[in-house]
Every structure is written in structure tokens, then in C-alpha cells.
């Protein structure tokens, strides 16, 4: 498989924090603020969506590593924007830099790695 993707690809996704996105709902905390697992999921989605147009038919990506800090709480009702940039392509390994911000500024950042997979072969191995 010859990937036609290069570093520099950017992504952007936006969500409005709902009760289902809170630490209290996820069980990762006791407060009604944006949960770290929800933020990480948004970061993964942002990275995935940014590279899908460049993947061969029948291929996808799976997340394999996250190194994220969550530095600020975000209340229910506030908008969160995540931006990603593909910073490294090593055969099937993709490395992204990600930043999430709410209306008050940065709430999290870090890196995320994904691997390109042939979806059918991947599922057949399970």
C-alpha cells in the first residue's frame, strides 16, 4: 500500500459540551465539567477525519497512543474546538499534534498516534 499523505494535513472539529460529556457521566470524576475521556475522543476524531480523504478505498486508521494533558475545566454548554496537524508519516504510522480550546482559551494539548489499516483484514484477525 502506497499512502498518498504527507505531514501538514490539518483537521478541525467542534462540539458543545453536554451532560453526556461530563466527568460525572463518564465516571472519570464527580463534577459536571467536560471529561478528559470526552476530550481525548474529540482529539482522536479530529485526527481521523483529517486523513480519511487521503486513505485508499477500504482503509481506515486506529488510535494506538495518546499523550495528552487536560489543563482547564469546561462547563456544560460551552463550545470546544479541536485542531490537529499531522506532523509525521512513517509508513503506516501517523503522528498528530492536537490542541483543544473552549471559549476561554486552551484546555488541552498533546500528541496522538494512529496506524493505517486495511479494515477487512484488521477485522478478520479479531
Explain the overall architecture:
The protein has one domain (10-124): Hotdog Thioesterase (Thiol Ester Dehydrase, Chain A, Roll). The protein is 21% helix and 44% strand. It is built from three helices and five strands, in the order βααββββα. The protein has a five-stranded antiparallel beta sheet. Strand 3 (79-90) and strand 4 form a beta hairpin. The longest helix has 16 residues, at 36-51. The two termini are 21 Å apart. The model has no long low-confidence stretch (mean pLDDT 96).
Provide the descriptors you would attach to this structure in a database record:
single chain, about 130 residues, alpha+beta, Thiol Ester Dehydrase, Chain A, five-stranded antiparallel β-sheet, about 45% strand
Order of helices and strands: EHHEEEEH
Low-confidence stretches: none
N- to C-terminal separation?
21 Å
- Top-tier CATH class: Alpha Beta
Strand order, largest beta sheet: 1-3-4-5-2
Discrete helix count: 3
Topology:
Elements: E1 10-16, H1 23-26, H2 36-51, E2 59-70, E3 79-90, E4 93-102, E5 105-118, H3 119-124
Antiparallel strand pairs: 1-3, 2-5, 3-4, 4-5
Amino acid at each position: 500500500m502506497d499512502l498518498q499523505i504527507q505531514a501538514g494535513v490539518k483537521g478541525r472539529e467542534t462540539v458543545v459540551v453536554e451532560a453526556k460529556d461530563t466527568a460525572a457521566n463518564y465516571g472519570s470524576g464527580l463534577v459536571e465539567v467536560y471529561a478528559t475521556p470526552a476530550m481525548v475522543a474529540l482529539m482522536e476524531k479530529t485526527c481521523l477525519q483529517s486523513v480519511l480523504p487521503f486513505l485508499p478505498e477500504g482503509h481506515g486508521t486506529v488510535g494506538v497512543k495518546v499523550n495528552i494533558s487536560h489543563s482547564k475545566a469546561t462547563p456544560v454548554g460551552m463550545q470546544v474546538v479541536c485542531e490537529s496537524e499531522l506532523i509525521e508519516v512513517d509508513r503506516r504510522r501517523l503522528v498528530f499534534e492536537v490542541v483543544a480550546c473552549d471559549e476561554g482559551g486552551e484546555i488541552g494539548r498533546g500528541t496522538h498516534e494512529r496506524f493505517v489499516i486495511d479494515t477487512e483484514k484488521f477485522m478478520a484477525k479479531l
